[in-house]
Structure formats: structure tokens, C-alpha cells
Amino acid sequence: MAGKELGGARDARGGTTELGHPRSDLLLLLVGLPVLGLLLGLVVPRLARWASGSPVLPWRDGIEFIGRFDAPWQTALVMAAGLVAGLALAFTAIAETATLKLSDALVHVERDGRTWSFERADVSAVFLDGKQLVLLGADSGELVREEHGPRAAALAGAFRAHGYPWRDADPHASLFHRWIPGTPDLPAEVHALLAARKAALKRKAPQDARDLAETVRGLGFVVRGEGAQQFWRPLAGV
To answer: Does 189 lie in the same domain as 86?
Structure first.
């Protein structure tokens, strides 16, 4: 596998493949976002001064305040703030996407300091759902659903090379139903968990939403989101 192009590196001695952000994506994040922040810091005060002459201006006080930043030290301060904001966004984007290490026997998924490891025999399917990488277990439940850094071609090539069951789409997609509160198809306990998960997503608490989805799996169901909607299906054989 071509490490630069695919965003991964194959260790022939250990038979492993490491997948992370491609170098071009890292360059864009770590250089492009800070530079964009600097440029915004330079032009925002000027745009604010230009916009302050509009007779219908929302947030006039704030915009006029920014427009008064015309001294060199004030411009430098705003540019520095833009640089810091760009770096923060870049590191956040890197931390919130998963990196992987594959061998013929194990797959390790790391995200934001947390690592999950699964044996090859315990993985029944691997596929992409939008921007998320999904690994299914032997019971068809989700082992992992994470934003991924590597490109789709790199992921598919690496998993196939190590003998994992890569799929072009979710093999159980046709079994999902949109969650309707109170439907008799689900136990009351699952309804309560899905309601709590909806609230967690609304307050932007993704880890709580993951924990609730894992609890739902323990009751025999899989849940996934699509926009503001939740969808569920029974585990295979349940």
C-alpha cells in the first residue's frame, strides 16, 4: 500500500497497517486553518468598518466595536486570536476522528485518547455510513461507529488486505425502522433509552449518546442517527 496516497503505512515485519489522516489532509488542517484564522483576523475589522455604514445592521454595537480595531497592535491581537482559533479547530478535528491499526488477527481503533480492540473473528462486517466507519460484531451489533480520518479507498484496501469482511454498505440497512415514541414494536425500556439518547444528542453530548446506544444493544437492538431522526433494528437472530 502506498503510505502517502492512502494515509497509511504497512509494516511488513509485523504484518500491520496503520491508518490515519493523509499527509495532505494534515497539512490542510495544521497549516490551512491557522492561516485562514490569521487572514480573518486581518480582514474582519476592515469588513466591520465597511459594514457599519449600513442602515440595517444587526448586532450593530458589536460590529462597530470590532470596526474600531484599527491600531497596529489591535490588528495584531485580532490576528493572533484568529491563529489560535485556527489551531484549536485543527487539533479538535484531528482528535475527533479515528485512527486505526490493523493486522490479520486484530483491529485497534483509537479516538481522542480512547482505544478499542477487536479480534478479526469477532467482526462480521465493516463499512462506511457517510463519514463514519462502522464495525459490526458477530451478533450484528455495532462495535464501533466513529468519524474516520483515512480516505475511503485506504480503509477499504486495508481491511480487505487483512481479510476483514468489507462491505460497500450496511448489510442490515433494510431492517431499520424510524423511531416513533410509543410504538409497540419496542419495549418501554428501549423507548426510554432512545428518548434519553435524543436528549443527549440535542445537548451535544456524543459520549452519552454512545453509552446509551451500547445499553440499547444490550437489550437486543441497534440504533443509529440520521439528521434529527433515530432509527432502530433488532440484532440478527433476535
So the answer is: no
